[in-house]
Please model this.
Amino acid sequence: AIIYFYLGGGCDSYNLLTPHTCSGELGDTVYDRYLKIRGKSEISDGVGLPLNRLHEIQANNEEQPCASFGIHEELTILKDLYNDGKVNFIANAGLLAKPVDTSNYRGETPVQLFAHNAMTLEAAREDLQDGFAGTGVGGRIADIMTQKGEAGEGGPSQFILDSNGISAFNENPSINNMNDIIKALNNATTTDSGFFAETWSSKLSDAIEKQNLLKTEVDSTTVTTAFPDSGIAKQLKMVTQLMQTRSSRGVSRDIFYVSDGGYDTHSDVDEKLVDNFGRINDALKAFVDELEVLNLWNATTVVQFSKFARTLDPNTGDGSDHAWGGNHFMLGGSVNGGKVLGSYPSDFEQKEGNKIALSRGRLIPTTPWDAMWKGTAEWFGVEEGEEMEKVLPLHKNFPSSKIYGKSELFVDE
Model:
Protein backbone atom coordinates (compact mmCIF):
# COMPACT_ATOMS: atom_id res chain seq x y z
CA ALA A 1 0.00 0.00 0.00
CA ILE A 2 1.02 3.60 -0.64
CA ILE A 3 -0.06 6.20 1.91
CA TYR A 4 -0.05 9.74 0.50
CA PHE A 5 0.54 11.79 3.66
CA TYR A 6 -0.26 15.44 2.98
CA LEU A 7 0.54 18.38 5.26
CA GLY A 8 -1.97 21.07 4.32
CA GLY A 9 -1.20 24.77 4.16
CA GLY A 10 2.46 24.53 3.18
CA CYS A 11 4.85 23.07 5.74
CA ASP A 12 7.85 24.99 7.09
CA SER A 13 10.04 21.98 6.35
CA TYR A 14 13.37 23.73 6.92
CA ASN A 15 12.48 23.36 10.59
CA LEU A 16 11.53 19.73 9.98
CA LEU A 17 15.04 18.94 8.69
CA THR A 18 17.74 21.45 9.58
CA PRO A 19 21.51 21.64 9.13
CA HIS A 20 23.51 20.37 12.11
CA THR A 21 27.22 19.64 11.71
CA CYS A 22 28.30 21.27 8.47
CA SER A 23 31.20 22.51 6.40
CA GLY A 24 32.35 26.11 6.42
CA GLU A 25 34.47 28.46 8.46
CA LEU A 26 33.73 29.09 12.11
CA GLY A 27 30.70 31.36 12.30
CA ASP A 28 29.84 30.74 8.66
CA THR A 29 28.85 27.09 8.48
CA VAL A 30 25.64 26.04 6.79
CA TYR A 31 24.04 25.82 10.22
CA ASP A 32 25.18 29.39 11.00
CA ARG A 33 23.70 30.57 7.72
CA TYR A 34 20.48 28.76 8.55
CA LEU A 35 20.23 30.55 11.92
CA LYS A 36 20.98 33.90 10.27
CA ILE A 37 18.32 33.60 7.54
CA ARG A 38 15.86 32.41 10.20
CA GLY A 39 16.28 35.74 11.99
CA LYS A 40 18.95 35.16 14.64
CA SER A 41 20.68 38.38 15.66
CA GLU A 42 22.05 40.14 18.72
CA ILE A 43 18.54 41.13 19.72
CA SER A 44 16.50 38.10 18.58
CA ASP A 45 16.76 34.33 18.51
CA GLY A 46 14.69 34.21 15.34
CA VAL A 47 12.73 31.07 14.45
CA GLY A 48 15.66 28.76 13.75
CA LEU A 49 16.12 25.76 16.03
CA PRO A 50 19.08 25.55 18.43
CA LEU A 51 21.05 22.31 18.45
CA ASN A 52 19.58 21.23 21.78
CA ARG A 53 16.14 21.05 20.15
CA LEU A 54 17.25 18.74 17.35
CA HIS A 55 17.69 15.00 16.94
CA GLU A 56 21.00 14.62 15.12
CA ILE A 57 21.13 12.13 12.25
CA GLN A 58 24.02 11.29 9.96
CA ALA A 59 23.53 12.41 6.35
CA ASN A 60 25.12 9.23 4.95
CA ASN A 61 25.59 11.16 1.74
CA GLU A 62 28.95 12.75 0.88
CA GLU A 63 27.30 15.09 -1.61
CA GLN A 64 25.47 16.98 1.14
CA PRO A 65 27.04 20.13 2.66
CA CYS A 66 26.56 18.71 6.17
CA ALA A 67 27.86 15.54 7.76
CA SER A 68 24.74 15.49 9.91
CA PHE A 69 21.31 17.06 9.98
CA GLY A 70 18.77 17.75 12.69
CA ILE A 71 15.22 16.45 12.90
CA HIS A 72 12.70 18.59 14.83
CA GLU A 73 12.58 17.67 18.50
CA GLU A 74 8.95 16.51 18.33
CA LEU A 75 9.54 14.00 15.53
CA THR A 76 11.14 11.18 17.52
CA ILE A 77 9.49 8.53 15.32
CA LEU A 78 11.35 9.86 12.26
CA LYS A 79 14.64 9.86 14.17
CA ASP A 80 14.15 6.28 15.35
CA LEU A 81 13.03 4.97 11.96
CA TYR A 82 15.83 6.87 10.19
CA ASN A 83 18.42 5.25 12.42
CA ASP A 84 16.75 1.88 11.72
CA GLY A 85 17.13 2.52 7.98
CA LYS A 86 13.40 2.92 7.33
CA VAL A 87 13.18 6.65 6.52
CA ASN A 88 14.67 8.73 3.74
CA PHE A 89 14.57 12.51 3.46
CA ILE A 90 14.71 14.30 0.12
CA ALA A 91 16.11 17.80 0.51
CA ASN A 92 14.98 20.93 -1.33
CA ALA A 93 12.39 19.13 -3.44
CA GLY A 94 9.29 20.58 -5.01
CA LEU A 95 6.90 20.77 -7.92
CA LEU A 96 8.87 21.21 -11.15
CA ALA A 97 8.30 20.74 -14.87
CA LYS A 98 12.03 20.79 -15.64
CA PRO A 99 15.26 21.94 -13.96
CA VAL A 100 15.20 25.72 -13.47
CA ASP A 101 17.09 28.46 -11.68
CA THR A 102 16.67 32.15 -10.93
CA SER A 103 17.10 33.08 -14.59
CA ASN A 104 14.21 31.08 -16.04
CA TYR A 105 11.94 29.66 -13.33
CA ARG A 106 8.96 31.91 -14.11
CA GLY A 107 8.77 31.03 -17.79
CA GLU A 108 9.53 27.32 -17.37
CA THR A 109 7.21 26.49 -14.47
CA PRO A 110 3.59 26.66 -15.73
CA VAL A 111 1.83 27.11 -12.39
CA GLN A 112 0.88 30.04 -10.17
CA LEU A 113 3.74 29.66 -7.72
CA PHE A 114 3.18 30.37 -4.01
CA ALA A 115 -0.64 30.27 -4.42
CA HIS A 116 -2.66 27.90 -2.23
CA ASN A 117 -5.26 26.86 -4.78
CA ALA A 118 -2.93 26.26 -7.71
CA MET A 119 -0.23 24.48 -5.75
CA THR A 120 -2.72 22.28 -3.89
CA LEU A 121 -4.18 21.09 -7.18
CA GLU A 122 -0.82 20.55 -8.86
CA ALA A 123 0.61 18.69 -5.86
CA ALA A 124 -2.04 16.04 -6.44
CA ARG A 125 -1.81 16.06 -10.24
CA GLU A 126 1.99 15.98 -10.69
CA ASP A 127 1.43 16.82 -14.36
CA LEU A 128 2.24 20.49 -14.98
CA GLN A 129 2.03 20.23 -18.76
CA ASP A 130 -1.42 18.58 -18.75
CA GLY A 131 -0.33 15.39 -20.45
CA PHE A 132 -3.17 13.59 -18.69
CA ALA A 133 -5.58 16.39 -17.84
CA GLY A 134 -8.04 15.80 -15.03
CA THR A 135 -6.04 13.03 -13.37
CA GLY A 136 -3.86 12.73 -10.28
CA VAL A 137 -0.70 10.72 -9.79
CA GLY A 138 -2.45 8.20 -7.53
CA GLY A 139 -5.25 7.73 -10.02
CA ARG A 140 -2.81 7.13 -12.86
CA ILE A 141 -1.00 4.51 -10.77
CA ALA A 142 -4.38 2.88 -10.09
CA ASP A 143 -5.17 2.91 -13.83
CA ILE A 144 -1.94 1.08 -14.59
CA MET A 145 -2.55 -1.50 -11.89
CA THR A 146 -6.12 -2.02 -13.17
CA GLN A 147 -4.73 -2.82 -16.59
CA LYS A 148 -2.46 -5.37 -14.92
CA GLY A 149 -5.40 -6.97 -13.10
CA GLU A 150 -4.19 -5.84 -9.66
CA ALA A 151 -7.08 -3.55 -8.74
CA GLY A 152 -9.88 -6.04 -8.25
CA GLU A 153 -12.84 -6.91 -10.44
CA GLY A 154 -14.06 -3.93 -12.43
CA GLY A 155 -11.15 -1.72 -11.49
CA PRO A 156 -10.45 0.40 -8.43
CA SER A 157 -13.30 1.85 -6.41
CA GLN A 158 -12.69 5.21 -4.75
CA PHE A 159 -13.96 5.52 -1.20
CA ILE A 160 -14.09 8.76 0.78
CA LEU A 161 -14.56 7.72 4.38
CA ASP A 162 -15.19 9.46 7.67
CA SER A 163 -12.27 8.79 9.98
CA ASN A 164 -14.78 7.93 12.72
CA GLY A 165 -16.17 4.99 10.75
CA ILE A 166 -18.81 4.13 8.18
CA SER A 167 -22.48 4.84 8.72
CA ALA A 168 -25.16 2.51 7.41
CA PHE A 169 -26.93 3.65 4.24
CA ASN A 170 -30.32 5.24 4.93
CA GLU A 171 -30.39 4.27 8.61
CA ASN A 172 -33.86 5.77 9.19
CA PRO A 173 -35.97 5.05 6.09
CA SER A 174 -39.43 6.59 5.88
CA ILE A 175 -40.90 3.18 4.92
CA ASN A 176 -39.77 -0.30 5.94
CA ASN A 177 -38.64 -1.57 2.53
CA MET A 178 -37.30 1.72 1.20
CA ASN A 179 -33.81 0.38 0.39
CA ASP A 180 -35.30 -2.48 -1.66
CA ILE A 181 -37.47 0.01 -3.54
CA ILE A 182 -34.42 2.18 -4.32
CA LYS A 183 -32.64 -0.85 -5.78
CA ALA A 184 -35.69 -1.90 -7.79
CA LEU A 185 -36.23 1.58 -9.23
CA ASN A 186 -32.64 1.77 -10.34
CA ASN A 187 -32.78 -1.63 -12.01
CA ALA A 188 -35.89 -0.81 -14.03
CA THR A 189 -34.21 -0.70 -17.44
CA THR A 190 -36.48 -0.29 -20.46
CA THR A 191 -35.84 -0.02 -24.20
CA ASP A 192 -36.10 3.77 -24.06
CA SER A 193 -33.86 4.23 -20.98
CA GLY A 194 -31.38 7.02 -21.55
CA PHE A 195 -27.62 6.57 -21.32
CA PHE A 196 -27.30 9.20 -18.60
CA ALA A 197 -30.07 7.61 -16.51
CA GLU A 198 -28.60 4.14 -16.90
CA THR A 199 -25.17 5.33 -15.89
CA TRP A 200 -26.58 7.14 -12.86
CA SER A 201 -28.57 4.11 -11.74
CA SER A 202 -25.65 1.76 -12.26
CA LYS A 203 -23.31 3.94 -10.24
CA LEU A 204 -25.85 4.41 -7.45
CA SER A 205 -26.58 0.68 -7.18
CA ASP A 206 -22.87 -0.12 -7.20
CA ALA A 207 -22.17 2.48 -4.52
CA ILE A 208 -24.93 1.16 -2.24
CA GLU A 209 -23.73 -2.42 -2.61
CA LYS A 210 -20.07 -1.59 -2.00
CA GLN A 211 -20.91 0.70 0.91
CA ASN A 212 -22.83 -2.08 2.64
CA LEU A 213 -20.03 -4.56 2.01
CA LEU A 214 -17.36 -2.16 3.21
CA LYS A 215 -19.26 -1.25 6.36
CA THR A 216 -19.72 -4.91 7.25
CA GLU A 217 -16.05 -5.66 6.69
CA VAL A 218 -14.70 -2.57 8.47
CA ASP A 219 -16.96 -3.15 11.47
CA SER A 220 -15.48 -6.64 11.82
CA THR A 221 -11.84 -5.48 11.94
CA THR A 222 -9.74 -5.33 15.07
CA VAL A 223 -7.23 -2.61 16.02
CA THR A 224 -4.98 -3.56 18.93
CA THR A 225 -2.86 -0.39 19.14
CA ALA A 226 -4.14 2.62 21.09
CA PHE A 227 -4.32 5.54 18.65
CA PRO A 228 -4.40 9.18 19.82
CA ASP A 229 -7.63 11.15 19.45
CA SER A 230 -6.34 13.56 16.78
CA GLY A 231 -7.82 13.80 13.32
CA ILE A 232 -4.72 12.46 11.58
CA ALA A 233 -4.49 9.55 14.02
CA LYS A 234 -8.12 8.64 13.33
CA GLN A 235 -7.41 8.69 9.60
CA LEU A 236 -4.41 6.41 9.96
CA LYS A 237 -6.35 4.09 12.24
CA MET A 238 -9.04 3.82 9.55
CA VAL A 239 -6.34 3.01 7.00
CA THR A 240 -5.26 0.01 9.09
CA GLN A 241 -8.89 -1.14 9.22
CA LEU A 242 -9.32 -0.76 5.46
CA MET A 243 -6.13 -2.72 4.89
CA GLN A 244 -7.72 -5.62 6.74
CA THR A 245 -10.60 -5.67 4.23
CA ARG A 246 -8.41 -6.11 1.15
CA SER A 247 -9.33 -9.77 0.57
CA SER A 248 -13.08 -9.12 0.67
CA ARG A 249 -12.59 -6.20 -1.72
CA GLY A 250 -10.58 -8.40 -4.06
CA VAL A 251 -7.49 -6.21 -4.17
CA SER A 252 -3.82 -6.83 -3.57
CA ARG A 253 -2.77 -3.18 -3.57
CA ASP A 254 -4.23 0.04 -2.15
CA ILE A 255 -3.48 3.77 -2.36
CA PHE A 256 -4.66 5.87 0.59
CA TYR A 257 -4.77 9.64 1.08
CA VAL A 258 -4.57 11.18 4.56
CA SER A 259 -3.97 14.79 5.54
CA ASP A 260 -3.14 16.98 8.51
CA GLY A 261 -3.83 20.71 8.57
CA GLY A 262 -2.51 23.79 10.34
CA TYR A 263 0.75 24.38 8.45
CA ASP A 264 -0.05 27.81 6.95
CA THR A 265 2.10 29.37 9.66
CA HIS A 266 2.05 33.10 8.93
CA SER A 267 2.53 33.71 12.65
CA ASP A 268 4.13 31.91 15.59
CA VAL A 269 5.66 29.21 13.41
CA ASP A 270 7.74 27.69 16.20
CA GLU A 271 4.85 27.15 18.60
CA LYS A 272 2.58 25.82 15.87
CA LEU A 273 5.14 23.34 14.57
CA VAL A 274 5.68 21.99 18.10
CA ASP A 275 1.95 21.22 18.23
CA ASN A 276 1.68 19.97 14.66
CA PHE A 277 4.78 17.79 14.65
CA GLY A 278 3.93 16.39 18.06
CA ARG A 279 0.50 15.41 16.74
CA ILE A 280 1.76 13.64 13.61
CA ASN A 281 4.60 12.02 15.56
CA ASP A 282 2.16 10.29 17.91
CA ALA A 283 -0.12 9.32 15.04
CA LEU A 284 2.69 7.86 12.93
CA LYS A 285 4.07 5.91 15.89
CA ALA A 286 0.71 4.25 16.52
CA PHE A 287 0.31 3.58 12.79
CA VAL A 288 3.69 1.87 12.50
CA ASP A 289 3.03 -0.16 15.64
CA GLU A 290 -0.32 -1.39 14.27
CA LEU A 291 1.18 -2.24 10.88
CA GLU A 292 3.73 -4.42 12.63
CA VAL A 293 0.93 -6.17 14.54
CA LEU A 294 -0.87 -6.80 11.24
CA ASN A 295 2.37 -7.94 9.57
CA LEU A 296 1.89 -5.22 6.94
CA TRP A 297 4.81 -2.93 7.78
CA ASN A 298 7.00 -4.29 4.98
CA ALA A 299 4.13 -3.91 2.51
CA THR A 300 3.48 -0.23 3.29
CA THR A 301 5.19 2.96 2.15
CA VAL A 302 4.27 6.43 3.39
CA VAL A 303 5.18 9.33 1.08
CA GLN A 304 4.87 12.79 2.63
CA PHE A 305 4.20 15.95 0.62
CA SER A 306 3.14 19.54 1.19
CA LYS A 307 2.20 22.00 -1.55
CA PHE A 308 5.18 24.26 -0.86
CA ALA A 309 7.67 25.12 1.86
CA ARG A 310 7.94 28.53 3.50
CA THR A 311 10.25 31.52 3.63
CA LEU A 312 13.27 30.92 5.81
CA ASP A 313 13.34 34.64 6.58
CA PRO A 314 10.54 35.11 9.14
CA ASN A 315 7.97 37.89 9.06
CA THR A 316 7.30 40.34 11.87
CA GLY A 317 4.85 37.96 13.53
CA ASP A 318 7.48 35.25 13.99
CA GLY A 319 5.82 33.37 11.15
CA SER A 320 6.87 32.30 7.69
CA ASP A 321 5.20 32.89 4.35
CA HIS A 322 4.64 30.99 1.11
CA ALA A 323 7.74 29.69 -0.64
CA TRP A 324 8.62 26.70 -2.85
CA GLY A 325 11.38 24.10 -2.37
CA GLY A 326 11.38 22.16 0.89
CA ASN A 327 12.27 18.87 2.57
CA HIS A 328 10.02 15.83 2.64
CA PHE A 329 10.27 12.21 3.75
CA MET A 330 9.23 8.66 2.98
CA LEU A 331 9.05 5.74 5.37
CA GLY A 332 8.18 2.07 5.32
CA GLY A 333 9.29 -1.40 6.23
CA SER A 334 10.81 -2.01 2.78
CA VAL A 335 12.42 1.43 2.44
CA ASN A 336 16.19 1.44 1.94
CA GLY A 337 16.57 4.37 4.28
CA GLY A 338 18.94 6.21 6.53
CA LYS A 339 19.90 8.75 3.86
CA VAL A 340 19.37 12.44 3.16
CA LEU A 341 18.89 12.52 -0.60
CA GLY A 342 18.44 15.50 -2.89
CA SER A 343 20.64 18.57 -2.49
CA TYR A 344 20.37 20.47 0.79
CA PRO A 345 21.23 24.13 0.11
CA SER A 346 24.48 25.46 1.48
CA ASP A 347 23.47 29.12 1.10
CA PHE A 348 19.98 30.56 1.58
CA GLU A 349 20.54 34.24 0.74
CA GLN A 350 19.47 35.90 -2.52
CA LYS A 351 22.63 37.25 -4.12
CA GLU A 352 24.66 37.15 -7.30
CA GLY A 353 25.91 33.66 -7.99
CA ASN A 354 23.25 31.87 -5.95
CA LYS A 355 21.08 30.32 -8.64
CA ILE A 356 18.39 28.85 -6.37
CA ALA A 357 17.69 31.60 -3.80
CA LEU A 358 14.87 34.09 -4.23
CA SER A 359 13.84 36.87 -1.86
CA ARG A 360 13.39 36.15 1.86
CA GLY A 361 14.89 32.69 1.66
CA ARG A 362 12.49 31.29 -0.90
CA LEU A 363 14.35 28.42 -2.52
CA ILE A 364 13.94 27.01 -6.01
CA PRO A 365 13.71 23.21 -5.78
CA THR A 366 16.72 21.31 -7.07
CA THR A 367 15.00 17.92 -6.97
CA PRO A 368 11.53 17.23 -8.40
CA TRP A 369 8.79 15.36 -6.55
CA ASP A 370 9.14 12.80 -9.34
CA ALA A 371 12.34 11.69 -7.59
CA MET A 372 10.45 10.00 -4.75
CA TRP A 373 7.47 9.00 -6.86
CA LYS A 374 9.38 7.04 -9.50
CA GLY A 375 10.95 4.47 -7.19
CA THR A 376 7.75 4.25 -5.16
CA ALA A 377 5.68 3.60 -8.29
CA GLU A 378 8.15 0.91 -9.40
CA TRP A 379 7.94 -0.73 -5.97
CA PHE A 380 4.14 -0.69 -6.35
CA GLY A 381 4.34 -2.47 -9.72
CA VAL A 382 4.57 0.27 -12.36
CA GLU A 383 7.12 -0.59 -15.05
CA GLU A 384 9.61 1.67 -16.78
CA GLY A 385 8.58 2.89 -20.22
CA GLU A 386 5.02 3.63 -21.31
CA GLU A 387 3.56 2.90 -17.86
CA MET A 388 5.93 5.25 -16.05
CA GLU A 389 5.48 7.94 -18.69
CA LYS A 390 1.77 7.93 -17.88
CA VAL A 391 2.28 8.00 -14.11
CA LEU A 392 5.03 10.66 -14.21
CA PRO A 393 4.77 12.47 -17.55
CA LEU A 394 7.63 14.87 -16.75
CA HIS A 395 10.20 12.63 -15.08
CA LYS A 396 12.30 12.34 -18.24
CA ASN A 397 12.83 16.11 -18.22
CA PHE A 398 15.32 15.61 -15.38
CA PRO A 399 18.77 14.01 -15.36
CA SER A 400 18.82 10.45 -14.04
CA SER A 401 20.89 11.60 -11.06
CA LYS A 402 17.86 13.59 -9.86
CA ILE A 403 15.38 10.69 -10.11
CA TYR A 404 15.49 7.74 -7.69
CA GLY A 405 14.53 4.27 -8.83
CA LYS A 406 13.28 1.32 -6.84
CA SER A 407 16.78 -0.04 -6.27
CA GLU A 408 17.82 3.21 -4.59
CA LEU A 409 14.74 3.72 -2.43
CA PHE A 410 13.82 0.15 -1.46
CA VAL A 411 15.58 -2.95 -0.20
CA ASP A 412 15.72 -6.02 -2.43
CA GLU A 413 12.72 -8.27 -1.91
